[in-house]
Predict the 3D structure of the following.
Amino acid sequence: MSIVNRVVLPLRVLLVVVFVALLAAQVWAVPRMVPDLADPTLEQSLVQSVMTAAAVVALLCVQAVVVCTWQLLTLVTRDRIFSEAALPWVNGIVWAVVVGWGGLLGTFVGTWYFIVDDVSDDAALFAILLVLLLVGAVVGLLMVVMRALLRQATTLRTDMEAVI
């Protein structure tokens, strides 16, 4: 049994745990994280709805990455990772990162708006969002590079199989 096959099973178990935890977070944790106001104004109700929707979309993006990673692991175990079949799954990861980053950017801009308007004196959320935005940009760009490398490896493997 190769090292890859020994690593795939524990990784899949962890992916299932992460997926279930994300699903539980969507159902139970996210609605409870949004502040519950006794008599919310229209603006506060809108902010609550947007916060909930943004959190759910972010979790959906991570779930999409988990599903795509599962499919890529299947291709790895079948020794088909360097084939055209892998590209849609990598594209799915790239698009999930792009959508998640866009949502994070929207949250960052909204937070900037509220901090500039002195609604909140605490800049910690703003700083955390800035760091997450930068990390998300790095992850997205790395995925684009990885996709290009996968495309090159796929082309090389196809050429080698044609020669052999």
User: Anything to note?
Assistant: The radius of gyration is 20 Å. Residues 10 and 16 are 10 Å apart (CA to CA). The chain has a mean pLDDT of 86. The chain is about 85% helix and 0% strand.
